[in-house]
Design brief:
It contains 12 helices and 14 strands. With 360 residues, it is α/β, with parallel strands linked by helices. The chain folds into 2 domains: 235 residues, 3-Layer(aba) Sandwich (Rossmann fold), CATH 3.40.50.970; 116 residues, Rossmann fold (3-Layer(aba) Sandwich), CATH 3.40.50.920. β4, α4 and β5 form a beta-alpha-beta unit. α3 runs parallel beside α4 and α10 packs across α11.
Length: 360
């Protein structure tokens, strides 16, 4: 029976509830602001449901605990915020190489360094380029509402299992703290209801032993492993691209933004449309794989793009790769945890749009 409950929830709590309802059997984490509410929520919910919650001694310990639990076939989640995710990078590379499903949540804060606890989008490069050492990628999903925090976290567990790969949910301190209604209209899954995975290592009484590893000293074997992973990433790029459009029909200027920045951009774009400016929004939901092809096709008719980011400019490089020289790409950013208002962005877009109109 489907649960159609509607509840007002904080963003971090919606992530935790999604994990529980997706059949997450183990959560490993270490405190860091601004994602502590998620760890707190998981401590209560995982214990209430008889599952494993463990506050580790460090972020490095947490990711390696997740690796171990994932190798047994359990659905596993860990979470942190920017500096903590940096500490997890070696473990994430191991998980990718060993082809283990794992969900990793990053509630981004201002940086670099320790920075501050304000919301930012400065971890884009780290998230979308693998982040650690070696040839690997992680699926990266970028929610823009509390409902999407729930929906995309739930989806992350399915993608992790399907492709045997780490999946990163990239949010920020604002999304993690805000409260919005969440509708639960999906079926809750218990860990014991999930099908067995034929590759797991959890005892070999009635079968030959299995061995999962990332150490491949023979260079030919390592090369073939890299190409096999590459072919898997190609499948992901063909199948798992997600994006949303807003007022793009007839647009002359396309704003590209994700997450919290996309919420701000929607309000600014709406005001632009009310002022008879032909401005639209493209919101990437999957940051990797990125919607390059959609950007390229859009650039057939839209000759001006603006990447709007809460950083000094990182996604802008993917927008440039997408247009392939077909269109001008501008960038507007506010780094360090500053959250601009829709009115501020409206002024920036207006100046750019008026300049474009004068140059026609």
């Amino acid at each position: 029976m489907k649960n159609k409950e509607k509840r007002l929830m904080r963003g971090s709590e919606a992530i935790g509830e999604a994990a529980v309802r997706a059949g997450c059997a183990c959560y490993f984490g270490y405190p860091i602001t601004p994602q502590n509410e998620l760890t707190e929520y998981m401590a209560r919910r995982m214990m209430d449901t008889g599952r494993v919650f463990l506050q580790s001694e460090s972020e490095i310990a947490a990711i390696n605990m997740a690796l171990g639990a994932a190798s047994t076939g359990a659905r596993v989640m860990t979470s942190s915020s920017s500096p903590g995710i940096s500490l997890k990078q070696e473990g994430i590379s191991f998980i990718a190489a060993m082809e283990l499903p794992c969900v990793i949540v990053n509630i981004v804060r201002g940086g670099p360094g320790l920075g501050n606890i304000a919301p930012a989008q400065s971890d884009y490069f780290q998230a979308t380029r693998g982040g650690g050492h070696g040839d690997y990628r992680t699926i990266v999903l970028a929610p823009a509402s509390v409902q999407e925090l729930y929906d995309l976290t739930r989806k992350s567990f399915e993608l992790a299992d399907e492709y045997r790969t780490p999946v990163l949910v990239l949010a920020d301190g604002m999304l993690g703290q805000m409260m919005e209604p969440v509708v639960f209209n999906d079926k809750e899954i218990l860990p014991e209801q999930l099908p067995d995975k034929p590759w797991t290592v959890k005892g070999a009484k009635d079968r030959p032993s299995r061995f999962i590893r990332s150490l491949l000293l023979d260079v030919d074997v390592e090369e073939e492993q890299n190409w096999r992973l590459y072919r898997k990433y190609q499948r992901i790029e063909r199948r798992e691209i997600r994006h949303e459009e807003y007022y793009m029909k007839g647009a002359e200027l396309a704003i590209v933004a994700y997450g919290t920045a996309a919420r701000i951009a929607k309000a600014a774009v709406k005001r632009c449309v009310e002022k008879n400016m032909r401005v639209g929004l493209i919101r990437p939901i999957s940051l990797w794989p990125f919607p390059y092809e959609h950007i390229y096709k859009t650039a057939e008719t839209v000759k001006h793009f603006m990447s709007f980011e809460m950083s000094t400019g990182q996604m802008v490089e993917d927008v440039q790769l997408g247009v392939k020289g077909r269109a001008e790409v501008l960038m507007y950013g506010r780094p360090g945890g500053v959250v601009p208002t829709p009115a501020e962005l409206f002024r920036v877009i207006s100046r750019a749009y008026n300049k474009i109109a004068r140059e026609k």
